[in-house]
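Structure first, sequence second, as always.
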């Protein structure tokens, strides 16, 4: 009895049609012309475990191998090697269900705790130069595709810079805070962005929306919270880790970009973003109180930014519900 398959010489990836025989305690691989391509005692070869319908390999000590898709024939011809533990497990429903359960628990725990914790640790360990480099790249993208130079009067920009200076100087961090003004398109509107290296971008529309300076200071404190907690870099790391995790689970990195796989990733990132916003709100309340400013000014401008109230477009699209944030700000301010 022989098994049809292919011979791999080991020195190249070329596959040669061949057959495998096992007689008198010896395994031999024969070419189509009958020539012996490899031979060894049955106990000296290594046979890959059986897993579904994946090809099996019979490997020889000299690095050559025989590949075949006839798993049943391999089990019959070389019974001493057996089908392997993996085939034994996958053939029983109980073990399959246990495997599915373990996978679900692993993914859930990774998303819930593992990925955020790892991202926080990695972001904290990165040198300031990495954050500054990322800051520059993001700003270049913003200026090239999303925003144009500010139309605010230079005197007003100078006044706001002086207003923001005490808040920016109060941050004890190796990434100094700097504020820039830009005119955004309609799809961005009233907005503020905290970049990885300490740059904070205010749009002209946000400045126009504010009814007083304290509201702008509230938004600034919130964005400084993002910088202090390294949210931009953490979110980037989390997104990358979620992609790797998805690839591990589905077994194909190309599936990360598919609609089925991408949707859970987007929803998960939405959750992470909301957690970051709550953290930044808390930071802002504490900073405003230290500077003698009522934190309710932040709550007031957030309410006007709420799209459901005809406000600032996409600014709150990934944020927790505005009433929830306003309530949390009032409660922390009252403590």
């Amino acid at each position: 009895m022989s098994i049809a398959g292919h011979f791999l010489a080991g020195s190249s990836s070329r596959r040669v049609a061949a057959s495998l025989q096992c007689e008198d305690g010896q395994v031999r691989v024969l070419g189509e012309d009958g020539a012996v391509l490899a031979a060894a005692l049955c106990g000296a070869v290594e046979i890959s475990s059986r897993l579904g319908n994946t090809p099996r390999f019979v490997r020889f000590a000299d690095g050559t191998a025989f590949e075949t898709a006839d798993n049943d024939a391999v089990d019959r011809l070389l019974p001493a090697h057996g089908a392997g533990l993996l085939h034994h497990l996958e053939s029983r429903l109980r073990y399959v269900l246990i495997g599915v359960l373990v996978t679900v628990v692993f993914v859930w725990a990774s998303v819930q705790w593992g990925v955020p914790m790892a991202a926080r640790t990695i972001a904290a360990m990165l040198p300031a130069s990495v954050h500054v480099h990322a800051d520059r790249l993001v700003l270049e993208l913003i200026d090239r595709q999303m925003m144009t130079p500010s139309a605010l009067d230079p005197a007003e920009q100078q006044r706001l810079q002086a207003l923001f200076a005490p808040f920016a100087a109060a941050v004890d961090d190796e990434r100094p805070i700097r504020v820039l003004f830009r005119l955004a398109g309609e799809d961005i509107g009233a907005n503020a962005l905290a970049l990885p290296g300490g740059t904070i971008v205010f749009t002209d529309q946000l400045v126009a929306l504010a009814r007083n300076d304290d509201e702008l200071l509230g938004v600034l404190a919130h964005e400084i919270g993002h910088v202090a907690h390294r949210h931009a870099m953490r979110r980037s790391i989390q997104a990358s880790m979620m992609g790797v995790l998805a690839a591990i689970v589905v077994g194909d990195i190309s599936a990360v970009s598919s609609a089925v796989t991408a949707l859970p990733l987007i929803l998960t990132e939405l959750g992470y973003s909301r957690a970051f916003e709550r953290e930044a709100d808390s930071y802002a309340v504490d900073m405003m109180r230290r500077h003698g400013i009522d934190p309710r000014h932040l709550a007031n401008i957030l309410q006007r930014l709420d799209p459901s109230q005809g406000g600032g477009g996409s600014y709150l699209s990934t944020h927790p519900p505005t009433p929830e944030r306003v309530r949390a700000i009032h409660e922390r301010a009252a403590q």
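Margin note: DSSP finds eleven helices and eleven strands in the chain.
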